[in-house]
Amino acid sequence: MAGSISRLVQLQYHFFISCSLLFYCTATDTPHPYVVYMGSTGSTPPRTPENSGTSSDLELLASIIPSENKDRVFVIQSYSHTFKGFSAMLSGEEASRLSRHPGVVSVFPDRYLPLHTTRSWDFLDVQSGLRGSKWSRLPVSSDVIIGIVDTGIWPESDSFRDTGMSAVPSRWKGVCMEGPDFNKSDCNRKLIGARFYETGEDAIRRHSTAGSSPRDTVGHGTHTASTAGGLPVPGANYYGLAKGTAKGGFPSSRLAMYKACSVAGCLSSNILKAIDDAVSDGVDVISISVGMTSFFQPDFLSDPISIGAFHANEKGILVACSAGNDGPEPFTVVNSAPWIITVAASTIDRNFESDVVLGNGVIIKGSGINLSNLTRSKTYSLVSGEDVAEKFTPAYEARNCYPGSLDQEKTAGKILVCVDSEPTVSHRVKKLVAQSSGAVGLIIVDDIEKGASMFNSGTFPFSEVSSSAGNQIFKYLNSTRNPSASIVETTDAVKLKVAPAVAIFSARGPGGLTESILKPDIMAPGVAILAASIPTIIDHGNIPVGEKPSLFAIKSGTSMASPHVAGAAAFVKSVRPQWSPSMIKSALMTTATTRNNHGKTIRSHSGVNATWHEMGSGEINPLGALNPGLVYQTSTLDYLQFLCYHGYKQKTIRSVSGVNSFACPTPSSSFFSTGSSSNLLQDFITSINYPSISIARLDTNRLGARKVISRTATNVGRTDSTYRVSVDAPEEIQVKVVPEKLIFSRMNRTASFEVSFQASSGADIGYRFGSLVWTDGVHLVRMVFAVNLI
Predict the structure, then answer these.
(1) What are the boundaries of the region Disordered (predicted)?
(2) 306 is catalytic
């Protein structure tokens, strides 16, 4: 009976999750998990077992939940270190009533957020000049701590050994939680902390957590942790591919894992708890490769990552987040709050080649990863999806290998050719369709630049070829009665590829919540990244016959890009320990590179020059960020005013900040005279001291209409220096900087300037992109801008 009830609860929970993502439910108002966010702890001491807020939380719940349902008066998760709140089982009506309570900032459903899922650091080292510099010889041990919010960790990996590392920093307050398969001894001087959080039904009903521990059973968390701060591991490879030394961005850093996620995703309540704990434990940088999809983006104070990151930033902790994988369409970027550094994904200079050998001896270059045992010596019948279509199936569906579109008798034992003109049918789905139809291999015809995700088909023979190569294959198919082919095992090629380029899947700006903050912020490697993984058999189809599970994996996604930036930020923090999160963020953004390894402008997936909405300020340059010359400091006050300008009530913002005296600014009369009142909020947001500029509306029809943006730069370079500005602007926009020269001295470490934008009359509408660069002859401080002409 208990099992049946348990299953019912689980079904209700997953039904709720599905409904919440669709914005409505037609079911009755059944209780479901909600997060109750109550703002900052402010100046009050953090809640401890002796000073717990749980009793007051229970009193609050008891005042909302009817007495006949008193069994629901319990707290699932409680937040107490840097912000207040809890999660609990509530009906929709109860959640609505609770949201109106004077001590509550927001109440939102406890949803699952999806995971956004080596040579990369070698490539970055060469690109930035880090290799061979004095900074490449940092000590073996550092006291900088990177917190990873993810699926857990595999502590036995060589990436997390602590050979040569000094004692754990005395300021560390974290713990190493135990479980059936995880002991305190699994933590060491490298992996100094590990926590886990109940998920799903356990979190709701407080069932036994037997089997729960910080151990990774998915592979995602181990991969991101080793990318951010893993130690160098010589001889790393993935079944012979990508051979070399695998290492993290800042190998001497300490790591702390916060297992808030499972294969299903990450509960909002657990993400908040993980961030709350990480801040209290003493981490310096947090990496989160998780986020809402672009189809459902809550406001800034109903998004668990946004809320947690705000309070972490307030405490001096930089939070790096993945931008999402819903590209290449615009308005798909997530994790776009200005207090987050939002990371897009790029390619590196390594390519995995999976060649196709046609029956006439012609070799077609393809890409992708397959571990098959096919050879050049034996070929198989070659057919197109359209040729083996199931009866009454539209040719378009069969060409794209739709599920159910292929005749198994016609497909069995053959190599199948499919096109990729239907984006809703993923490579993984096409592979499953081919396998279930009995095909011995799959060739997908697509643009290789677009297919930059480097699909891994495991042991199933697979290759992705360009449209021109596909034309060769189709021409061959139509030229002979018995076409045949083979797909040979993958090989890797290094330094033969133009890189970086923006990955097709990487989410694009502008931000859906506000176009007046330019997002994403920056770009980092996220395609075919080799890093540590879990040596367990998750999918038998991915392991070659006679091989053991690999200790490493090759993964793609903005999930892989975010820990690169976290590692780079930790590197900067180790050299500049007094710098605030916004200073580190500014340094990374203004020194980012916009050129590829051939000295040309970085391209998008389609081969055209990338825009700032695709790559942010450019590809990270960790060495350059150590000495940026100038930085743009964005304060907590800036962020609070951002919330004012975004329409949040002053009372709400006081709760968020914990500062009862905070007051939203009042627009001056002179400001009202510069533009229409409908644009005032966006203009104010634009003028917060951010390291980039985004103007959501610049009128092309009103004579003399212009926008004026102010910024303040802080000199972190030579004491006495003078910077002069140069502007790279599109023809349709006149850009003027006043003053054109900034003079710094020992007594004057900051200087302000204004940038005015005015559109040419009659210019075509749409976004234009440019940049302004301050230089003292040594430093180049680039601030990029995006302007939407209306």
Answers:
(1) 207-229
(2) no
